[in-house]
Amino acid sequence: MFRKLFLLFILIISLNSIAVAGEPQIVGRAAVVLNVKSGKFVYLKNPDQKMYPASTTKIMTTLIALEKGNLTDRVYIDKEACYVEGSAIWLNPGEQLSLEDLLYSIMLNSANDSCLAVAKHISGDVNSFVEEMNAKAKEIGAKNTHFVNPNGLPNDDHYTTARDLALIARVALENPKFREIVATKTKVINRDPKYLRLLINHNKLLWRYEGANGIKTGYTVKARQCLVASANKNGEEFIAVILGSEGRNVYDDAQKLLDYAFNNYQTLQVINKGQQLKKVPVSGGQGPVEIVADEDFFDTISKDEKPSYDYKFKIENLKAPVKAGQKVGTLLVYNKGTKVGEVKLVASNTVEPSLTAKGKKVLYPGILILMGLFLTFQFLKKYGRIKPKY
């Protein structure tokens, strides 16, 4: 009897081990993996737990600077920027560098001093720049993120989540220059030779992991080791976010998560931008409108899964005229009955009002005018203002 219970115990332990073997076990307290094309998460560990982001904050700083600034701008360095604590390229008061070189120093060398210089250049002062960072986070959908500085230095009101950081990083990767900067291993910036010129990317994953192409490391005593990592293999691209890891484990965490994503998931293009989907009649129009997808739609699924997609149209009540490119509704995409996304729909052709409709537009006002004149005449006639001849 004891032997049977022991064997049953071993079997239960084995089954549990098999059940969890698929997902990687990591040190980081919070982590996610996101597919860049589809925006779908394939791994979650405390994804919405508020965490300190440390220097991964600089992803947003660089994104704002790229959107608002000009790379060839000369940025003047003041004293405040020079004396900020933490990692730096040791800027000097009165020095001038291009915005492009400063952004390289931010993302490769994690330069806190460059962050302040860039913030002031873009927005006039640091507080205004931080307001833009928070506004951009809200626009992206990073609901649990709040910044108080552009470099990630510790502050209880400066926080984010693993999910939010992945969303921010995905938007940042849409910018080609951002992609170029974060994939760069070393860079010599245009600066007086007596100052630091050679930048070496702190992100060791660029050397250690095949296909790695970004993005940013971070560390403070409170935040511990943080990493937003991205990699591209055979057309698949994933972002792994790890927050609150320890020492070198952060790179082991990233490799485990990326391997898990590449080995177990695939991304399918379900809808093509411009794909013709449906013809819809237009009220008062000369003909139907051809409805097309306004964007590509991708879905990331397990490699073992056999998908079965179906669609539901939500079309607006269309009345002529309808212009080409006008939004006309939304396509809901389902896989085996579960909603997996939405696609914006637009008109591919212009539909003008029909001749009948045009005639009615002219006829109806004319009838109303004649009726008005007739009633006015009858009123005046009745009360003696107009004496009839007959």
Task: Explain how this protein is built.
- This protein is 36% helix and 26% strand.
- The chain has eleven helices and 16 strands.
- Helix 5 (112-123) crosses helix 6 (126-140).
- It is globular, with a radius of gyration of 30 Å.
- Mean pLDDT is 91; it is low at 4-21.
Condensed summary:
This protein has 390 residues and is an alpha+beta fold. Helices cover 36% and strands 26% of the residues.
The structural class is: alpha+beta
Between the first and last Cα atoms, what is the distance in angstroms? 123 Å
Contiguous helical run count: 11
Silhouette: globular
Q: Give the fraction of residues assigned to helices.
A: 25-40%
- Beta-strand residue percentage: 25-35%
Number of domains: 3
Uncertain stretches of 5 or more adjacent residues: 4-21
Q: Superfamily at the CATH H level of the largest domain?
A: DD-peptidase/beta-lactamase superfamily
CATH topology of the largest domain: Beta-lactamase
- Arithmetic mean pLDDT: 91
What is the H/E order?
A: HEEHEHEHHHHHEEHEEEHEEEEEEEH
Strand order of the largest sheet: 2-1-9-8-7
Radius of gyration: 30 Å
Specify the CATH class of the largest domain. Answer: Alpha Beta
Major sheet, described briefly?
5 strands, antiparallel
Second rung of CATH, namely the architecture of the largest domain: 3-Layer(aba) Sandwich
DSSP strand tally:
16
